[in-house]
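Tutorial handout. Part one gives the primary structure; part two gives the three-dimensional structure as tokens.
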Amino acid sequence: MEHTDESCPLYPIMLRLTGRRCVVVGGGSVAARKVSSLLASGADVTLVSPRVTPELGRLAYEGRIVHQEREYKPADVEGALLVFAATDRPAVNDQVAEDAHRAGALANVAHHPEGGDFANPGSARNGMIQVAVYAGGASPTLTRRLTAKLAGQVDDGLANLAARLSSARRDTKACIETPERRHELLRRYAGDCWEAYEQGKEAPAWEEWLDRC
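Part two.
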């Protein structure tokens, strides 16, 4: 079977978007999905489109997004970290991506992943645990199926485990000065908690575990 893998795979990253300006050009269902994900991440979202879905209209009415109710202009992407070209017109999407590059922003082009700088993976989340799935743009259906399969494995036990380890990390920073000692304790504690999770047992409480060390 002949494979068409990219010679340089995409670089995986989790971005902190709170308060960062992101621009979505387009007003249909694809744009609505982009906007929803951006809002969930705390981004400052500007939407540019003369017509929008009822969902996007409601978000604009509630003041959750800034809606420029007109055709796209190159100046719309100035100051943005991420730009999403999500219209149903390929020529407009290509222009948006080109303008984004000139403005120093990263562009995502709907229906043409190769034309942009990054792709949106499928994702599943439970508490602090988040998994992302990307199938190289080969098949949205495959991405959805893989995401659903992995989502079933990100159970409440894993979410609770992540919360427990996060709390232990905060406590350790406050009471143990030596970085090497902190890292060693957290490594061992995470290992014991994972073993308990694998065995279906309750993970040890951090304070009690620390007292035994």
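Part three, for discussion. The chain has a mean pLDDT of 92. Strands lie at 21-25, 44-48, 66-68, 82-85, 106-109, 122-126, 129-133.
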